[in-house]
Amino acid sequence: MDAPLHPAPREHEELEHHPSPRKYVAIAVILAIVTAIEVAIYYIPALFDFIVPLLLAFAVIKFIFVALYFMHLKFDSKVFRRFFLIGIFLALAIFGVVLAIFFLAQNGPAPVLTDR
Amino acid sequence: MAAHEAAVAAHDDHQTSTGLDNTKLAMWAFLGSECLFFGSMISTYLLYRNNVLDGPTPHEIYDIPYTSVSSFVLLMSSLTMVLALNAIQRRDQRALRSWLLATAFLGLCFIGGQIYEFTTFVHEGLTMSTSTFGSSFFVLTGFHGAHVTVGILMLLTLYGLSLAGKLEGPEGARPVEFIGLYWHFVDIVWIVIFTVVYLVPTE
Known about the structure:
Strand content of chain A: under 5%
Mean pLDDT of chain A: 83
Oligomer: heterodimer
Largest sheet of chain B: none
Shape of chain B: elongated
Structural class of chain A: mainly alpha
Strand content of chain B: under 5%
Low-confidence stretches of chain B: 1-11
């Protein structure tokens, strides 16, 4: 049995939910400030012990702002969000698997090259 | 007149089994697959970045202030891109063309900066074959630059389509939205690359 068909949303219906240009500019200012903070952290020796979690946290904040507001994931169907999250999850899984292969199977980050 | 507009709107409606735009769904599936593409290259870079052999180390060769400006330029291009989408959603073709050109210009500035950076690195002794750090760095950032270049070509195509009057009508914003998604994705990837590749210190 065929699935029932529904009309795809029209452009003007989506526009009603999107932010105004003023809000887009405000988000861009936040992104610029966060980038400036990231660069400042890089030059502050006192924060060196915490630099990795701090930088990753700020990168995640920027990532989320762009995806939610500029890519409109906050306003669009959750199906689009899931498609994107699956990609991110699989990318992280690849990193985990590669890390495991290199460090557990070969005892180090460089591959062992052998003559045949 | 009202009957004509209703007829045009009815013609532009398309039926889907999900109630979602199929092309947009395909675009998000493509972006999901791109996460895997860049994820695998970022993973490779992280594993090899300390393997410098006799070549320069990341700490010696990276110019953080310079790359910070490049990052800021690409970040602002996301703003101009979303303003281009907003313009066409308001049926303002002139503003659309201005924002598209601004986005393409910022993208070109980023690419110009990357070409200058690559040239400097090669002069300082880091090439694709210097070390696995060099290989993984150039492959990762080079592929990102290729994506930005493709994005610029698509933006200029949109500009031409707008000039030719082919982005008018109720569904004229769709191509701008899809190419905008691609552009924002390229920006998001750079957010990760800038932090993980340039700012996170090596051992």
